[in-house]
Write a structure and sequence with these properties.
The chain is of the alpha+beta class and 119 residues long. Helices cover 29% and strands 39% of the residues. It has a five-stranded mixed sheet with strand order 1-2-3-4-5, sandwiched between helices.
Length: 119
Amino acid sequence: MARKDELGEWGERVAGEFLEANGYVILDRRWRCARGEIDIVARFGTTVAVVEVKTRRSVRFGHPLEAVTPAKFARLRALAGEWCVGHDTGSRQLRIDAIGIVGDGKFVESLDHRIGVFA
């Protein structure tokens, strides 16, 4: 069984592979600034998606996406703005997505991609 950090890294890899398989281009992974971290930044057509990834071993204590609260969304929105300042996004739209993964670090039990959370 994977430790928490290893499970999170595995989930981010799975999420990145899922996005790429669905036509997204990964622009950044684990981007950090003084205010925090963005798990994945990806481009899909004319949209840049800031993607929060939550991974859990089970849903015993709730679905992983339940951890993406309005407060977390507000922080992600601020981080997305900071990311945009340092990167040329052109006239692309910006949105915040969330991916919830349930799995053991080897096998995915479920993957739920929510597009434009709290939009």
